[in-house]
From TrEMBL:
<protein>
    <recommendedName>
        <fullName>ABC-2 type transporter transmembrane domain-containing protein</fullName>
    </recommendedName>
</protein>
<dbReference type="InterPro" id="IPR013525">
    <property type="entry name" value="ABC2_TM"/>
</dbReference>
<keyword id="KW-1133">Transmembrane helix</keyword>
<keyword id="KW-0472">Membrane</keyword>
<dbReference type="Pfam" id="PF12698">
    <property type="entry name" value="ABC2_membrane_3"/>
</dbReference>
<feature type="transmembrane region" description="Helical">
    <location>
        <begin position="255"/>
        <end position="281"/>
    </location>
</feature>
<feature type="domain" description="ABC-2 type transporter transmembrane">
    <location>
        <begin position="24"/>
        <end position="457"/>
    </location>
</feature>
<feature type="transmembrane region" description="Helical">
    <location>
        <begin position="301"/>
        <end position="334"/>
    </location>
</feature>
<feature type="transmembrane region" description="Helical">
    <location>
        <begin position="437"/>
        <end position="459"/>
    </location>
</feature>
<feature type="transmembrane region" description="Helical">
    <location>
        <begin position="346"/>
        <end position="366"/>
    </location>
</feature>
<feature type="transmembrane region" description="Helical">
    <location>
        <begin position="386"/>
        <end position="405"/>
    </location>
</feature>
<keyword id="KW-0812">Transmembrane</keyword>
<feature type="transmembrane region" description="Helical">
    <location>
        <begin position="24"/>
        <end position="44"/>
    </location>
</feature>
Amino acid sequence: MGLPKFSRIWLIAMRDFMGYVKTWGFWLSFMFPILGGVIGYMFASSDIDLSPPRYETVLDETGVHGAAILDFYETEQSDIRAKAIKAMAALLPEADREAFRTSVDEDGYEAGLSELRDRYPTVAERIEMPTPSMIFVDPPENSLSALTSYLDGDDRLTVGDESPRLNGVIVIRGTVDDPEAQYWSKNFNSPPAERLINRYFSDLAKRRYLESGGLSAEDYDEAVSGRTRVELFNPAELSGEDEAEAVSMLDRLPFFAGLGLAFFLLMSIFAGAFMLLTSMIEEKMNKLLEMMLASTRFSEIMLGKMLGAAMLTFASLAPYILIALGGLIGFLLFGNPEQVAAIREAFPLSTILTSLIFLVLGYMFYASILIALGALAQSMQDAQTLSLPIVLLMFLGIGVIQFGAVAPDSPVVAFASIFPLTSPFAMMIRLASDPPLWQVLLSIFLLATSVVVVMWICARIFRFGVLSGSGVGAIKSWFRRVILRKAA
């Protein structure tokens, strides 16, 4: 028989690949992320604000709570700005990070911003201060009925050179000790002012309760902030009596990368499934497969179509892959040296190669089944019927990914990482937690063996479907005759 010739496999792959690449649909999907990035950059670099702040005002009959709500909101905004400034500490040298965070806590975000501009101007340039969701203005009228025209948009506010619309009115009635709060706005789905009022009165209730027992909210917050905090540790990092470092976000990156690769495999199978099924149906109906069999083998046709579908999937996802690789390369070249070293340590060559093995074997496993189903299908209706089991298997893979995301050490995930139908998805998630080597090798062996067996069976089905011209009807007839013992 001899081995399949790669030249024939490549010709079949290029024929299928170029057949789809020449279509408008492929280039529209290819250009979509690029156009999206260009449009996003244009919006980001322009003065267009897709979510402008809401203009709110307060009518306070108590004379106390209105001003207190505004102070409460300003305190929250200061805390948000302080967190944004403290987040930039990750870009500073490790020796200066803790001192910088302490300085922001003690002196405020403005002092931290000034320090960054003086000592680390390149870091300061990367700061994007969060935009407040609301801007409070003085009420243009002193009654709710008079403000109705502003809420309807008939009248406008005067704020500097702008004439914005009044989005909502906070009304505080009752007494200081027993207030009643209302919020009037045409946006009643989830307005930020309503959430602000609820947070304010929740904080007020806490303060009053603590003060009734002779306690202060500040002391309570200080006690809570100084509580014992739990740190996560990985026992694999423990060596002898030395203390290991707590788990950081960099330590979690391999886990997130495993999740991303598992989803990438799912996307690859879904993206290539339509091409494999439709190409098989078209070539079978047009008698092209019979012509190809005059000069090529079944194995060469199967491998060529699998390679063509893989190339098409890779080309379709190329913009996303290039963006991800560009960001990674840029970070490795210009990022914080300590973080770069940690990432390189978190992704050893063995983990990368093992993930690629599962990615390739998983694709070959499901692609073989799809080609066999395409050979049996005689119409798009048949293809939809036959592809249903594969879709169900894909949902099983999605379930494994979701379960592995919350419980990667579960016995169910451990079994799924060895079971061939789900091992490509589950094992890529488990690689981050350093599973036993024997489980990894067993999973690769079982998956590789399953790929060989499935490809052999699918080649038989492929030969049967193409040469005999049979399809779903033949399978139904065989089932009735052999299994049910009924006349066809």
